[in-house]
Amino acid sequence: MEYISAIVKSPSAEVTLEEAILILSDRLLNSKLPSDRRSAILGLKNFSRQYREIVVEYALRSLLKAATIDKDDPITMKAILETLLILFMKGTTTNDEKNKNIENHTFPRSPNGKYVSPLSVLLEVDQFSLWIADETTSTPEYLACFIQCLQNHSNFQLKHYAIQLIEGLLITRPLKTKDLFTKITTSVSAIVSLLSDEHDQVKGEAIILLIALVRDSYDIQKLVAFENTFDTVFTILKEEGGLRGSVIVHDCLSLLHSLLAFNASNQRLFLESGCISKLSQLIEDLVGPSLDHTYENEAPSTELYWNPQRIKNMLLTLDLCNSFVEKDNQDSNYNQLTFFDSGVFLLLLRVAFANNMEGSIRSQALIVTGNLMAGNKVLQYEFSKIDVPWFDPSFPITSSQKPSIAAPVALVNWALSLNSVHSFDIRLSASTCFQCFVEDNHDLKIGFMEDQISSFIAEEHQQKADIITQTSPAANKGDPVYLTNLVSALVQRDEDMKLNPYKIWFAAYFMICLINDCHETRRIAQRLKVGNEAYGEDVMSFIEALAQNLVTVWESTDIRVPVAYISLLSFWLFEDGDATDNFLKDIQTVKSIISCVVKDSSDSNALATGMGFTLIGIAYEFSRCASPCPRKTFHEIIIKTIGIGNYALKVKKLYQQYFEENNGDIMSQSLTRDDFGLPKVYFIPLYQRLIKDNYYRIKQALLHDPNLDPPMRVTFELFEDLEIKYRDLKNLQQARESEYCEKVTNLKNEVLRIQRSCQNTERELEMKISEVEKLRNLVQQYENSTTIMKDDLENLDSKYASANKIALDATSKVGALQKELELMKRSKSELLLKYEDVSAKKVIAENGINKMNRELKELTRCLEDERTQLQELELKTKSDLISNQRKIKELEEEVQQLRYSHTVMNENYDKIRKELAEKMQFIETLQSDLKKSEFERNAKSEYAKNAVEKLKSAASVIQNLKMQIKMKDEVLKKAAEKLSAADENSEDSLNAIGFSLKATPTISQNPSEQFNNIGNDGEELHSKLRADYIRDSRSPLLHDEYMSAEQTAPARCLTSPDSGYLNMPDIRTLQSEFDELVLLWEQEVKKTKYYRERLKQHNIDVSSDEEC
């Protein structure tokens, strides 16, 4: 210092102040010895107190560079940090204080001898502070150097200066400093580790630093939380005495609130790490055990003194609990249940209903308790079962025993009965808590409304609420409990209205909470009848009574009373046609309200007048043509008395003056009071939100057509709900469509499989039919050969007759030959008997063939029926597929129309569901029919196989007939030889007989040869025989005549040789049966061709069947 003073004061050196600072800065950068750098730093430190601007200009970079060089030297580093801190915080004082500090060469210090924390005073940031901050944050190296000092050195002052310097950076350049913290790996860990430091000053500064560091920085909040900060903070709180502690407790709670507020990740970590139990213990240590105790034995607690610090600590703890249940938080339900399970909910309830609790804490506890159960039905029901002590928080604490009442009833009593102007915060908090109690719980609203109405009916003839004295043994009969009723407060006129004008206001608030978004409570309240006809009172509905009371209290001295009635009626009538009809039932009362609105022009009642205009507009907007006072008539009354233009201007003025800049949150506003000490709170929050959301519709109400019923408003919430339902229905529809398409695909595959099976079956049937046709050709060939044999036999018979005539003529001449001839006749008769046997066997064979033909006919008819059913089934399936595709298109169009109408959407959905059920039932019917047809096809196949077996057996019978015919031909040959031997005695006879005998072998041999030839070329012979049959139908007759002649020939020869064939049997029956057989065969051929053509029309390949 002497060296520096010599440099400055020496007249011979003539060194200026700037040069001296430059010399020190140069020495600081270029000196190799630590002692030289340390002396230069001390010199700059002395200059920094009086010549801050010059030191910042010429030596700032040198100081920062020296910090990186001497970061391991605690003495040098301490001097550097203190110098930087002096330069940084110089702007915190005013000009007068600055001059005083310059004269005294002092710097503001805290009582413990340390510099005041930049975050604990109002730091006045100037250009030099910004200069220092910008230079320090230009690179992460300097901040890393400060953090390294916190980690490597144990010097108390060194850590303290480093923390304060970082705090100054966070004040001047918060975003840049936080960004550097995220780039330095160990920065957050180093700061959090200071919470366990042995020095309380360092620990306190670290907490303040962390509060500033995590504010509005989501990433740093998570980094700090994952350093086990929660447990460390609760350890500090326990060491500091909990919520009874000093300002360090408030800082710890502020740090927790900064880490948890609006940070779902940290909130989950807080709950999962078990810190909620520590929070519960923290509250319990202050307020005592939970509510599970006997209130009768409770004495007023006087041991806890609520000083300002404890009040701040408790309020911050309540804010901390409230941060877990913010609106629109997806984890709110889980957080609420966790707080209830841990006992925090009951502890906060005890705080709210404790005797010796401060008013601000009680109010905040009621709000937090309400938020902890808002929208949670489980906690709401638990709250309804809790009994709390009844007392008046506005009265001094007494030692008398307190009776217990239900918690919701206590909220109503506090809101309606407390009359002190200092209890308004408690009344408002109780109303907010009740609003949360019934939020989104229709069952609770209905139950509470029914209880209030029942109580009102029981007390209908009383002007005030009943005084119920507790009758339990432990109760003090001199301490009555005043229970109030919402309906009584709104309907019956209160003489103390001037002393307690907010009673009607809070009653309207509670009633609005009960009817909000609950159609059932509205209907229950509308069915309530007020007045007793037996006592000469007019009987009217609840809404009519409210309207009449509004007219009665319009000239009230306190504007809050008519405002409360108007708010309740406006909220009730909005979008409720039934309530509006009930309101318009007494049109004289409505006209009185219009008269009050039009005539009252005083400034003191301007608010009620403006709200009265909105009430009339809402009543018209939701009136209907079928209302007691029709919409058109009501419109004419309003136009005549108010006027469209005047109405719109009044509503606009009301909105601009009271609603436009008001956010509607009463709890967050600072309440101002009027001359009587009452707060200037006029609007119920739900009513205020209604007016702000629907201002345009209310203002334009009178411009709407009076001949049309009003349309219902589609809110964004309703639209969002409809959109969610639409998406759900669309997903369900898509799932069902995909399922239906999959079923249709499966059915198509099943139909194709059945078609292929039918094709295979038809192909097999065609093969069997072709086999039957071949057998039929064989039978036809046999019949043709039989016909030829008949012709040959007829020729033989004619020749035999001529030979017999010649033999008879020769008998007279040759007697010797007669005996031989008799022998020949006897042999011929035996031959005829054998032939008759063969013919009988042939008839049996023909009968078997006819039986097989009939069976084949039946089989063909069954096949035809099966084909017809298959074709009908195929056509029906195709038509169903086409209709199903058309239905799918219709369903898609119906899905598009769901955006416009929820009702149409539900109807279309039901229709689609029914149609799908019918189609599924029809498809199941088709499947059963297909199975049935397949079963019948298998049965027919078995029947065809049996027919084929029968035809095969018929073929074997035909083969046996061939053999018998051959044997017959041999017998005929032998007979011819005997005839030729018998006629050798007569030359003429021998010549005639020789001619016949020569011709006989040819005749007998032709049938067998022709029969064999028929088997070689069946198809050609089939056509030839059909042509012969058509050309000459007498061939069967010849065969029949021959058979008859064979049977009667012996008799004719023996009795009357000259007799002809006049006694032959009728052969027409056999001819008709043969004709029927041929016609049936032709029909079968035609049907086969017809079915093949039909199969080709359906694109079914029959080429393989034709080849068969």
Automatic annotation (TrEMBL):
Entry keyword Cytoplasm: no
Xref: SUPFAM superfamilies: ARM repeat
Membrane-crossing residue ranges in chain numbering: none
Gene3D superfamilies in UniProt: Leucine-rich Repeat Variant
Family annotation (Pfam families): Uso1_p115_head
Lineage, opening ranks: Eukaryota, Fungi, Dikarya, Ascomycota, Saccharomycotina
Keywords, comma-separated and alphabetical: Coiled coil, Golgi apparatus
Residue span, Vesicle tethering protein Uso1/P115-like head domain: 376-702
Compartment annotation: Golgi apparatus
GO CC terms in record: endoplasmic reticulum; ER to Golgi transport vesicle membrane; Golgi membrane; Golgi stack
Coiled-coil stretches noted in the UniProt entry, renumbered to this chain: 744-785, 849-908, 944-978
UniProt-recorded name of the protein: Vesicle tethering protein Uso1/P115-like head domain-containing protein
Any single biological process term in GO: vesicle fusion with Golgi apparatus
InterPro entries found in the cross-reference section: ARM-like (IPR011989), ARM-type_fold (IPR016024), Vesicle_P115 (IPR024095), Vesicle_Uso1_P115_head (IPR006953)
Main location, first listed in the record: Golgi
Superkingdom in the source lineage: Eukaryota
